[in-house]
């Protein structure tokens, strides 16, 4: 069974928009004058467009050929736009749970992508504390030119697995990549909302430090979205609401929790992909209604401060069937370039996954 079906359906298994009060764009229609001939009147109203525009029917990045390290599954992992080029550090793997490797792909426009070599540039075996697998999830480039990948591990075959967040650096995106000797971010204490897993990080570099959004899982497997801050990108402090002083929110607090039971995201929320814009903060996240593989969808939330979030009235903004022949999608990543949100999704067709693209162009306002 596919990694993220177990990863999101078992934990379940596992990151454009418009403001919550703004409608998705629709085709313009002006009613004809009352004196117009009947033949001038449209017979049907135009259908509203989907929130996102899906780019074509084919994947933008394909899995590998038979017998290769990525011949069954590949997801978009970590994406960064740097020096006029899109850089993707994609995960490739042949089963779950099983070792995952990271391949390097680039694009000049975000639509047409080229694999940079057939071999991975970073592998699970390069992380001493990754017991089964590690998955790239976020990337950035420091001011001194150092490339950074933030990843999470998968450490057992039981449900839910244990996992931690780590960091690797390189002087060149093709490597060699060197993982820090120890994880940089750990689950909470026993009984806390994130006591079992911390995973799917998205790290944002700001002028005064770093912000991380991540998925946190309790011992029952319920996922919520947390936030942490750091001065150096290595030592992190989880967001802790002083108004909550009892377990499971004694040590820290989620910034986005599941909605009311029965709603499309009333089961779990996870995989945050967050962007700071001139109009405020924007988050795309994956939500599930229940434990069925057909309940997954992407949602949109906005915030003034990056801590207190409001769900969009347009939710959900992306459904699995928007990818031709797909009944589910698993991991997603994203990048904002020149007012266009590029959301990359791991579409699943016949239990094999490849990477598809959906875009949204325009200002994001509350």
Quick description:
This protein has one helix spanning 3-9; strands at residues 53-54, 73-82, 85-93, 101-107, 113-115, 122-123, 133-141, 147-154, 165-170, 178-179, 197-206, 209-217, 223-230, 236-238, 268-277, 280-288, 297-303, 309-311, 328-337, 340-349, 352-361.
Shape: globular
Judging by the overall fold, what is the CATH architecture?
Answer: 5 Propeller
Which range does the strand content fall in? 35-45%
Percent range of helical residues: under 10%
Distance between the termini: 39 Å
Determine the mean pLDDT: 89
Rg from Cα: 21 Å
Number of strands: 21
Classify the secondary structure makeup into a structural class.
mainly beta
Tally of discrete structural domains? 1
Number of helices: 1
The level-1 CATH class: Mainly Beta
Walk me through what this model shows.
With about 375 residues, this protein is mostly beta strands. It has one domain (about 5-25, about 45-360): 5 Propeller (Tachylectin-2, Chain A), CATH 2.115.10. About 0% of the residues lie in helices and about 40% in strands. The protein has one helix at about 5-10, and strands at about 55, 75-80, 85-95, 100-105, 115, 120-125, 135-140, 145-155, 165-170, 180, 195-205, 210-215, 225-230, 235-240, 270-275, 280-290, 295-305, 310, 330-335, 340-350, 350-360. The strands form five sheets. Strands 2, 3, 4, 5 and 6 form a five-stranded antiparallel beta sheet that branches. Strands 1-21-20-19 form a four-stranded antiparallel beta sheet. It has a four-stranded antiparallel beta sheet with strand order 7-8-9-10, with no helix packed on it. Strand 17 (about 295-305) and strand 18 form a beta hairpin. Mean pLDDT is about 90; it is low at about 1-50.
């Amino acid at each position: 069974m596919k990694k993220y079906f177990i990863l999101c359906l078992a934990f379940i298994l596992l990151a454009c928009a418009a403001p919550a009060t703004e409608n998705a764009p629709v085709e313009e229609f002006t009613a004809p004058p009352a004196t117009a001939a009947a033949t001038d009147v449209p017979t049907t109203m135009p259908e509203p467009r989907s929130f996102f525009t899906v780019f074509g029917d084919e994947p933008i990045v394909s899995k590998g050929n038979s017998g290769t390290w990525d011949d069954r599954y590949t997801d978009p992992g970590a994406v960064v736009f740097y020096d006029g080029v899109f850089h993707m550090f994609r995960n490739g793997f042949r089963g779950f749970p099983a070792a995952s490797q990271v391949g390097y792909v680039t694009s000049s426009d975000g639509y047409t992508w080229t694999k940079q070599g057939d071999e991975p540039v970073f592998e699970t075996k390069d992380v001493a504390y990754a017991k089964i697998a590690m998955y790239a999830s976020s990337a950035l480039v420091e001011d001194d030119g150092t490339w950074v990948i933030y990843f999470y591990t998968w450490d057992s075959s039981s449900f839910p697995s244990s996992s931690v967040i780590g960091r690797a650096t390189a002087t060149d995106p093709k490597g060699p990549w060197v993982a820090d000797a120890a994880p940089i971010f750990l689950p909470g204490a026993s009984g806390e909302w994130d006591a079992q897993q911390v995973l799917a990080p998205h790290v944002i570099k700001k002028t005064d430090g770093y912000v991380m959004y991540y998925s946190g899982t309790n011992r029952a497997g319920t996922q919520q979205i947390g936030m942490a801050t750091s001065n150096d990108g290595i030592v992190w402090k989880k967001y802790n609401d002083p108004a909550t002083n009892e377990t499971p929110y004694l040590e820290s607090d989620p910034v986005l929790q599941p909605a009311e039971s029965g709603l499309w995201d009333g089961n779990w929320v996870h995989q945050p992909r967050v962007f700071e814009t001139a109009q405020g903060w924007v988050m795309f996240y994956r939500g599930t209604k229940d434990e069925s593989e057909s309940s997954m969808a992407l949602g949109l939330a906005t915030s003034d401060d990056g801590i207190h979030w409001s769900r969009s009235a347009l939710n959900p903004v992306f459904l699995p069937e928007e990818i031709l022949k797909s009944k589910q999608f698993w991991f997603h990543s994203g990048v904002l370039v020149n007012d266009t949100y590029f959301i990359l999704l791991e579409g699943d067709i016949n239990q094999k996954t490849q990477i598809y693209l959906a875009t949204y162009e325009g200002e994001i306002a509350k």
